[in-house]
Design goal:
heterodimer; A: alpha/beta; Rossmann fold; six-stranded mixed sheet; 10 strands; 41% helix; globular; B: mainly alpha; two-stranded antiparallel sheet
Chain lengths: 250, 318
């Protein structure tokens, strides 16, 4: 069974059609990239999947259930997590506190007003595990707002992973990053994909990253699906080259 | 890390010591016990407001409504129904809680200035009811001709009516319990979701927190303790004033919290103390005491956005 099925979704803002009848299927363990020029509707498409916006028409099936009209929190409970193009973290809290909130919520503690020592210790252990995995361990006590852009992004991705998602949605994870930071994030994504078999959908501008990482690529242009296929097929697709790659090269 | 914890323990100890001994030294510095009681009550209200403002990031300009419901709930009960202090307090708090629960459901999806405006509007509804309903509430003259009753435990009697010092400690017990509950809530996983909402609502939502529900709970907790402060205020004055429901009273609570420092747990206590004492002293010299508070407020906000406690903390860490 497919993990995510997007069926013919459309999103209109007044007379503007931001996403026009797009369908997509993501299999368990797949790393799917969504690319397209600015204004192609990539982020809107992401917002529809994650519940930030609801589609004007169409259906979204996640892990066998129709989630088209569910609010974001309920999609998270079903195993969907996302990051944002502009990093969304808790800037005035430390890295550890950021992760603590994510781990506690993921453990179902969000309404607890009291915590046993054992539960608190389990949370601590899980935070340490996440810190080690993300390479943020030396910065655990720092306020996230004081960290570099790359470290803030790493914190955000780690928070999403703290939710133990079945599907991770990454909106331009390398946006605004230097070469080294881009490389680090790419390695992190590759490890998640290869070692943990985590299913991911990725919006990305950096073509090196996309063609390097993705199992399959979907190309959006002006709200429509232009093409879909393996990186090889997409690279060879003429319509894509004129609409997108051609422009980027020129 | 350990230094900070030590500092916090030391600050807590100093504050509780000052509060516990206040009736002993207040006269010597030119105050009087009732003034101290008023500080503690206003500090409870401002701390409760700050639970929502400072720790959830939601600004209410209508907390006077729930304060005033506490005031009138206690006053009306003692005057007309049962001459019992504790029953009056229970009714006052319960009235505030029920009103806050219902109004909260209607407004919790609003944010920022819209939320603040709607809280004012709902607050004014209660003000006009108290103001117009002459035969019951006493209208503009307020609700008088009643007083708090001594509390009879059977084996002992607590004469809060005739002894201001006994009443001060009676108030301080409620303050301590309320403040301890709020502090414990803020240090729990639930409290951390509130901090998360303050820091970044979008991120919190996408961690799987139903944000509106948590804001509603925070609002309800905040209004409950503001209502409690209202009942104590009615008992202090043996009087219910429609002004206690007026929107400017809501503004006073916000001023206290911001003045003292809304990012510090004790900030609102400091703010309330400054506000109440300035009001008491300056108003004996000029009717325009509010302009002095206003000026002080503007200076603090301009130069020390983290409030009076923020200044002290900065000094301490420098």
């Amino acid at each position: 069974m497919s993990l995510l099925q997007v069926e013919n979704v459309t999103k209109r803002f007044g007379s503007l059609v931001a996403v026009n009848g797009v369908s997509m299927t993501v299999e368990p363990g797949e790393l799917r990239a969504v690319i397209g020029p600015n204004g192609a509707g990539k982020t809107t498409f992401f917002n529809l999947i994650s519940g930030f916006q609801t589609p004007s028409s169409g259906r979204i099936i996640f892990a066998g259930a129709d989630v088209t009209r569910l609010p974001p929190a309920r999609r998270v409970w079903r195993g969907m997590a996302r990051t944002f193009q502009i990093t969304e973290v808790f800037p005035e809290l430390t890295v550890r506190e950021n992760l603590q909130i994510a781990v506690e919520v993921a453990s179902g503690f969000r309404l607890r007003i009291w915590q046993s020592v054992e539960a608190a210790n389990n949370v601590e252990a899980r935070i340490d595990e996440l810190l080690a995995m993300s390479g943020l361990i030396g910065k655990a006590g720092r306020l996230v707002g004081e960290l570099s852009h790359g470290d803030q992004r790493a914190t955000e991705i780690t928070m999403a992973l703290a939710l133990k998602p079945r599907l991770l949605l990454l909106d331009e994870p390398t946006a605004g990053m230097g070469d080294q930071e881009t490389y680090d994030i790419t390695q992190l994504i590759r490890n998640l994909h290869r070692d943990q078999k985590l299913s991911m959908v990725l919006i990305e501008h950096d073509m090196r990253v996309v063609f390097h990482l993705a199992d399959r690529i979907m190309v959006l242009a002006e709200g429509n699906m232009l093409a879909e296929g393996t990186p090889h097929e997409i690279a060879a697709n003429e319509a894509v080259q004129t609409a997108y790659l051609g422009k980027a090269a020129a | 890390m350990i230094d900070r914890r030590y500092q916090r323990h030391a600050a807590n100890a100093v504050i509780w010591l000052l509060l516990l001994t206040m009736p002993l030294w207040l006269d010597a510095v030119g105050g009087y016990t009732q003034l101290g009681t008023q500080v503690v009550i206003m500090a409870l209200a401002a701390t409760a407001l700050n639970f929502l403002l400072g720790y959830t990031g939601v600004l209410s300009f209508g907390h006077a409504a729930y304060f005033g419901l506490g005031v009138y709930g206690a006053g009306l009960t003692i005057k007309y129904l049962v001459p019992s202090t504790l029953t009056g307090m229970a009714v006052g708090v319960l009235t505030a809680v029920v009103a806050a629960a219902i109004i909260g459901l209607l407004i919790v999806h609003l944010r920022g200035i819209y939320f603040a405006m709607v809280t004012i509007a709902f607050g004014q509804v209660f003000y006009f009811i108290a103001y117009r309903w002459n035969n019951v509430t006493g209208g503009d003259d307020g609700l008088s001709n009643w007083n708090r009753m001594p509390i009879d435990f059977g084996f002992a009697k607590l004469d809060i009516l005739h002894s201001p010092v006994t009443f001060y400690y009676f108030v301080l017990v409620f303050f301590a319990v309320a403040v301890a509950i709020m502090a414990a809530l803020l240090r729990s996983p639930f409290g951390r979701t509130l901090l998360a909402i303050r820091e970044n609502e979008r991120r919190t939502r996408f961690l799987g927190v139903p944000v509106d529900r948590h804001i509603w709970l925070s609002w309800l907790i905040s209004c409950t303790f503001v209502g409690l402060a209202g009942t104590l205020y009615a008992l202090l004055n043996n009087f219910a004033d429609p002004h206690d429901l007026y929107w400017s009273q809501s503004g006073d609570f916000v001023i206290m919290a911001v003045l003292g420092g809304m990012r510090s747990f004790w900030g609102p206590l400091i703010g309330a103390a400054i506000f109440v004492v300035l009001q008491d002293y300056v108003s004996t010299m000029t009717q325009n005491w509010m302009s002095f508070i206003g000026l002080f407020f503007v200076l603090v906000v301009l130069f020390f956005p983290r409030g009076v406690l923020g200044i002290i903390r900065r000094k301490a860490s420098a």
